[in-house]
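Q: Structure for this?
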Amino acid sequence: MSANNGEQMLNTAKEIIGSTCQSLGIEQDVIDRIIEPDSIHEVTLDLERDNGRITPIKAFRIQHNNLLGPYKGGIRFHETVNRSEVQALATLMSIKTAVVNLPFGGGKGGVVINPKTLSQGELRRLSQNYVAKLANVIGEDIDVPAPDVNTNPTIMKWMLAEYEKIIGRKSPATFTGKPVTNGGSLGRMEATGRGGVFVLQELLKRLNGGNQSKMTIAVQGFGNVGYYFALIASQLGHRIIAISDSKGAILVENDNDSFDLNAVQNCKKELATVTQCYCVNGVCDSKRGKKISNEDLLELPVDILVPAALENVINTENMSKIKAKIIIEMANGPVSAKANEYLKRNGVLIVPDVLANAGGVIVSYLEWVQGKQRYWWTEEKVNLELEKIIVAAFSDVWTHGKEKNISLTESAFQVAVQRIVAAL
Ligand code: GLU
């Protein structure tokens, strides 16, 4: 995301929190305090190249608010990372943890790098250096990082090892999203997608009076979040009729079909794109399926649209062409503020990212609890706890929204802000 887009995202986040506070009658000095981050750490990392030379790399850890508990949020590695973007994402983490009622605040980290340009050794040394430069401001009861865009369990393992080396003792709860072999939690990998499906099922119960009808769904993005959302939704009988990745999208030939997600995932590993993976009922055929663009996928006449890739993909350019009546925001910020207003006026129900994709940070919380107790749970127990927490959060947001006659997005922000302000 460019610095300008980052700035815009930050302004949007500030505006939403500002207007939420105003509608709750909160005083201006309190609003100002809630919007401003507690601390901004901006450091220069020394990336040690394989040839021994050092490249300076900008990096951030922004701690927005810790009224409800230690700062919590991922670290992203991306060449367009900038301070405003990280601040916006840290702010939204404070809202996300509060909506789902976790004992955490909000933070976010970023490193200005395209990790695909690095060797494994360079990536490891860069990850270790990030921790070396920020070790004094993180910790299991201070600030607990996790993966985000372009970071993964292996990077968390390297970071934790570096942190433990610096402090001279074990502290597995300082990072979440670790490999299961290194104190990670079972179920963390699938958690964001699984949480999104729990939210979808709760929504359908409310809309259809308990009648769990089967929906047609288009999922944009086939990373960890999009894949597990599609897989788990299809296991419940919903039909996944379109999927996509950065190379394009693919649509089933017949509306009664549904992609076989396990087969697609195996095929993608081989062919590096889902657009060649027309997999239905266990059989894949690279020549079949309607190839469409990512933009076309968003405009399909499906029951449910699931943007699970990038920010701002639904915006003023395409908002009038959206045909789905329900949007589940699995990416962070996939619907722009203007598009959100427009779609709301046109009767589209949007489940906001701070609720829909909170399954990831919820299981991070469960991993933190397990790490602190040094006692690890079965996957079944993790999934049950995830369900309990996200279903309760959905119910809070739904009920508050109905009482106040406001959208789910407005309601989620109100629920979160009320919890944060109550802790002041
Ligand atoms: N990066 C994820 C998010 O945006 C997970 C954060 C976490 O687990 O702390 O929600």
